[in-house]
Every structure is written in structure tokens, then in C-alpha cells.
Amino acid sequence: MNEPYGPEAPRPISSTSSSTMKMFMGLLTLFIVAQTIGTVLFCLYLHMKMDKMEEVLSLNEDYIFLRKVQKCQTAEGQKSTLLDCEKILKGFQNLQCKDGATKEQPKFEMQRGHEHHERSHLTHKNETSVAAEKRQPIAVHLAVKEREKAGSVLEWKETMYAPKSSLISNQEGKLKVKEAGLYYIYSQVSFCTKEVSLAPFTLYIYLHIPKEEDRLLLKGQKTQSTLKSFCELQSIRVGGVFNLREDDMVFVNVTDSTKVKYSHGNTYFGMFKL
Ligand SMILES: *[C@@H]1O[C@H](CO)[C@@H](O)[C@H](O)[C@H]1NC(C)=O
Ligand SMILES: *[C@@H]1O[C@H](CO)[C@@H](O)[C@H](O)[C@H]1NC(C)=O
């Protein structure tokens, strides 16, 4: 009946088939895309897994190497294994050397520290020796020195067995202290009197401070009373403790230095730090 339209009849069919085709194609594309993404993800996963595996494998290798070293380090193990122990031990030593190079620094530091410690110990020792030197008594004992020119200030010289100190210097009869502190200062002057004089023979110990007036520290006196023509020997002794500052000087002067006895042991001057 509608023969001429016959070929038109399958058109809806073909249109439906093309739409299913289109759907199929869409699904296929979707599938392919999903497959691709899946593959990429799987590859990524695999790659990561491989990395981990590699790590584990290298650890395993390390473990095996250490086991080999352990085996090779014992004489029995060396005999029993077929391993090339020499090579393995050499490799291990090389590793240790490399490791040692990095560890060398702290060791070196330690050594240096030790050296430093030693050095500080040395300086400490030196300090102690200095301290010991300082602990050595600061003391001098001097004998009177015969002088050519007249003067009231007596001069002094070192005597045998008597202490001397670098911290007390003798400058023309004046003893200068380099260290402040308490000092015991003493002196004895022996003299002989022939003629009667009303003025007593006097021994003084003065403190001399530069740019200041001399201050009397000690004084000893004897009145000459005898009328004898020969020398009557007398001695005056004084001594006391004084607080001296650095560079202070002390000296002895007498009223008449011509009467002073210069024989050994008669006239002396000394001081020491307490
Ligand atoms: C103390 O130090 C001096 C140098 O200042 C040195 O010559 C001496 O050997 C040292 N003494 C000691 C005991 O270390
Ligand atoms: C002893 O020295 C003091 C201080 O320099 C002085 O004042 C005094 O006159 C001197 N004594 C004699 C006897 O020269």
C-alpha cells in the first residue's frame, strides 16, 4: 500500500539504530577514558610500590652484607663459607673509613677539647706556681751599709741567709713595697757614745709617700748618760705592724749616723708582709 514509501519505513529503524550506535560509542569512549585513567593510576601506584620495594630490597642487601661480614669476621665462618671474605671485609673497612671520616670531626673536637683541658690544666698549674711564688713570704732583712757621705738616712745591704723579695725594692735606703697590705716593720740600730750629749740618740722609721710629707711610724731613743771615754755600745730596737699601700716606702734615719755600729748583726732593718 504505501510501497513507494517503503524505503522510508526503515528510516525510523535506522535512526534508532544510529542513536544506539551513538550511545554505544559514547559508552565505549567513557570506558576507554576510564580505562586510561585507571591504567595511569595503577602505573603510579605500581611505581610507588616499586620504590618501596627497592628500599626494602636495598635494606635486605645491607642485611645480607652485614651477615656476610659477621660470618667473615669469625675464623670459623671464614672456613665454612664460600664467600670472598677478603673482598667483603675490605668493603666493610672502606665503609668504616668513610664513616670514620665523618666521625673524625667530633673525635678531633674531643681531642682538641682534651688538649684545651690539658692547656687549661697547664695554665692552672702555672697559676698555681705563680700563686706558690706569691705565697713565698714577702720579706726582707737587710744589714746596715757603711756610707761615705754623712746623712741621717741609713742605707742597707743584703745579708747572708736573709730573705729577699722582688716585691720589696731597696732604693737608697728606702724600702718600697709593690704589694699593698699589712707589714711588720722592724729595725735595730746599735751605736756607741763617747761624749755626753743631752740630746738622746734617736732611731726613726718613717713612711715616705711621694708628694706627701714623711710620716713617723716608729721611734726609739736612748739618752747618752755615761762619761766614759771608751765607746759604750747601746742598741735601740723598734718594730710594729703597718698598713702599707702599693709603692709606699719606709726608711730609717737616726739623729747621728756617725755613731752607728756597722759590725755584723748590730744594725739591721727588715720587714715582711703578714
Ligand atoms: C709557665 O709559663 C711559662 C711561660 O709563661 C712557661 O715557660 C713554663 O713552662 C710554664 N710552667 C709550667 C709549669 O707549665
Ligand atoms: C728623719 O727623716 C724625717 C723625714 O724625712 C725628717 O723630718 C727628720 O728630720 C729626719 N731626722 C733627722 C735626724 O735627720
UniProtKB/TrEMBL annotation:
UniProt keyword annotation of Secreted present: yes
Matches recorded under PROSITE patterns: THD_1, THD_2
Record site feature (Cleavage), residues: 109-110
Pfam families (alphabetical): TNF (PF00229)
GO biological process, one term: immune response
Subcellular location: Cell membrane; Cell surface; Secreted
Residues covered by the THD domain: 138-274
Membrane topology classification: Single-pass type II membrane protein
Family matches, as SUPFAM superfamilies: TNF-like (SSF49842)
GO-annotated cellular components: cell surface; extracellular space; plasma membrane
Disulfide-bond pairs as recorded: 192-231
Main location as per UniProt: membrane
Keywords from the named record: Cell membrane, Cytokine, Disulfide bond, Glycoprotein, Membrane, Secreted, Signal-anchor, Transmembrane, Transmembrane helix
Annotated signal peptide: none
SMART domains, A to Z: TNF (SM00207)
Region (Disordered): 106-128
Annotated family: Belongs to the tumor necrosis factor family.
Name of the protein in question: CD40 ligand
Gene name for this UniProt entry: Cd40lg
